[in-house]
Amino acid sequence: MSHLFHAGNRALQDRFDGRRVADALETRRRQDRFSPEHVAVIEAAPFFFLASAAEGAVDCSFKGGPPGFVRATGPAELEFPDYDGNSMYLSLGNIALSPAIGLLFMNFDGRSLRLRLRGRAALVEDPARIAAIPGARRLVRVAVTDIFPNCPRYIPDLDTATPSAYLPRQDGTQAAPEWKSRDYIRPILPADDPHRSGPGIAEHLG
């Protein structure tokens, strides 16, 4: 029985004579435990992409932070912080209803392998653990079920960019995005949002 493929995948593999290749790749490439190389990719990443879905609401999010913001916490487990956002909770809301997620780690250097992960996510609201990570509002823990390194074909080689100016600082503060200062948003920000009032709201960068 395949860990990676469902009936829809199989139907297309058979239609286009791809089942043999697909089976070989699953057998040779799929893993269910992190290798040291996997951990190095994950913990050096300044971003990843997160896919989630629930009740027909499919979402793909960019998650960014300083290198090390995603941590491998076990042989097949990782955690990442949920930073200040737009209060829509698209990813976390999906996770609350359907914990199955996909993660994609990649470098835009044209040569590094992509790392695809599948797993089941859960929200962590332990105040002590959250307080230990600058800027974290919550933590998301992922029990990883499938690890699949993927070739770098089609990935462009981009110039190295500077880190986002909106990343949390070591003291946990952040520059406010421009949209939080808009008159239809600022009064209705969550009560604990540090950008709801005070000088921080003026410190937006665009």
From TrEMBL:
Gene3D superfamilies xrefs: Electron Transport, Fmn-binding Protein, Chain A
A Pfam match: PNPOx_N
Pyridoxamine 5'-phosphate oxidase N-terminal domain: residues covered: 35-133
Top-rank taxon, per record: Bacteria
Protein name per Swiss-Prot or TrEMBL: Pyridoxamine 5'-phosphate oxidase N-terminal domain-containing protein
Protein source organism: Belnapia rosea
